[in-house]
Write a structure and sequence with these properties.
The chain has two domains: about 210 residues, 2-Layer Sandwich (Ribosomal Protein S5, domain 2), CATH 3.30.230; about 170 residues, GHMP kinase, C-terminal domain (Alpha-Beta Plaits), CATH 3.30.70.890. About 40% of the residues lie in helices and about 20% in strands. It is built from eleven helices and twelve strands. The structure holds alpha-D-galactopyranose. The site of alpha-D-galactopyranose has 11 residues, from α5.
Length: about 400
């Protein structure tokens, strides 16, 4: 389980091999190239990205790969290992509403490139085959992985030359408009900018990114992902409602976004806002502080000292932002009770995964204890694996 010799550094990954094979099987020829992009774990900074705040995610050693080959017409055809059907769209007919289902991700990215000024009118069609080993619905950004793999593949193959921060925006636009999820810029930034053993400290207002060494390996630490397998759906419900509360709070307090508030402003916020909106605002304001505190502490004292920030982040999401579920709370509490340095739910919430940072030797212990605690509560068996901070999107072949 705690396989420190994972494939994160090598050029060929399981997903890229699968994408190349899938391409050959579907289209009867070899691809011209294979690109891949990782999912992400957010170490800290939840629901801060769309409030112009700070996040500190890292790219993980689970990737989505896309194999690409030219066509001699102007059609894009996408196939994948997770769907029995290929989807075909003419380049002139790309729109955010062109398709539904999984194909909205790759085809949404092709459309979004055009929105950012790419000359699609003179591009030839392509066949794409997508394969992935990023767990879907676990809060590890399987959607950003596919968007970023396709964005980089099309950008390099068609020679547009967009930089990575722009490709992140392309992925986000596809997610917002073609998929219909009102998400921020964090996931795509992590997937495109991540590096081995490092986190991406991103200011979501300026989009300045600092890639900061995490030092987990050197300090003998592992990050365990506990996927509760409680499904979440960002396109509906809770995520959009939280975003709307944040925007309402900012409006009521007369600031452009919650990023502009400091802890000292919370007293005034409390007197002006209803209790629920106040707690949503307090989460975002304190979470921004925790992200900056984590980065500072990492720098000054190393990764073994960041635990209290992770723990406090979870409490804030559970009690103020109210996006946790009993399974996530149990995963976090059990990891903490068994010696984890820190633990919290990660991602948009309402299900998905928790993360727990611990010394390597504790991984089997925490894994066993979390499984036992879930069984005792009658919860579905969680999926658990360690995630290594890994290289962002790249060409594999
Ligand atoms: C999802 C979204 C991100 C971010 C997180 C919460 O992962 O895609 O943009 O808002 O939720 O931090």
């Amino acid at each position: 389980m705690n396989d420190k010799a994972g494939a994160s550094g090598s050029a060929t990954t399981t997903a890229s091999t699968a994408a190349a094979h899938g391409f050959a099987e579907w289209f009867g020829r070899q691809p011209a190239g294979v690109w891949s992009a990782p999912g992400r774990v957010n170490l800290i900074g939840e629901h801060t990205d769309y409030n112009d705040g700070f996040v500190f995610p890292f790219a993980i050693d689970r990737r989505t790969a896309v194999a690409l080959g030219d066509r001699d017409d102007r059609v894009i055809r996408v196939a994948s290992s997770f769907s029995p059907e290929a989807v075909t769209v003419h380049l002139d007919e790309l729109s955010p509403d062109a398709v539904n289902g999984w194909a909205a991700y790759p085809l949404g990215v092709a459309w979004a490139l055009g929105e950012f000024g790419a000359d699609l009118e003179h591009s030839r069609g392509v066949d794409l085959h997508v394969a992935s080993d990023v767990p879907i619905g676990a809060g590890l950004s399987s959607s950003a992985a596919i968007e970023c793999a396709v964005a980089l593949a099309l950008d390099e193959h068609w020679g547009f030359g967009f930089d990575r921060p722009t490709l992140a925006k392309v992925g986000q636009l596809a997610e917002n408009r073609a998929v219909g999820a009102p998400t921020g810029i964090m996931d795509q930034s992590a997937s495109l900018l991540g590096e081995a053993d490092a986190g991406v400290f991103l200011d979501c207002r300026s989009l300045d990114a600092d890639v900061i060494p995490l030092g987990f390996d050197a300090d003998g630490l592992s990050l365990l992902v506990i996927d509760t397998r409680v499904s979440h759906d960002h396109a509906t419900g809770g995520y959009a409602a939280r975003r709307a509360s944040c925007e309402a709070g900012a409006r009521a307090l007369g600031v452009e976004s919650l990023r502009d508030l400091r802890p000292a402003d919370l007293e005034r916020a409390k007197s002006l806002l209803d209790d629920e909106t106040f707690r949503r605002v307090r989460h975002v304001v304190t979470e921004n502080q925790r992200v900056q505190g984590t980065v500072r502490t990492l720098h000054e004292h190393g990764p073994g000292a960041i635990g209290p920030f992770l723990d406090a982040s979870h409490v804030s999401m559970r009690d103020d932002f109210e996006i946790s579920v009993p399974e996530l709370d149990l995963a976090v509490a059990t990891a903490q009770a068994n010696g984890a340095i820190g633990a919290r739910m990660t991602g948009g919430g309402f299900g998905g995964a928790a993360i727990a940072l611990m010394i390597d030797a504790l991984v089997p212990v925490v894994t066993r204890e979390v499984a036992a605690a879930f069984a005792e509560q009658g919860f579905r068996e969680p999926a658990m694996f360690t995630a290594r901070p890994s290289q962002g999107a790249r060409r594999d072949a």
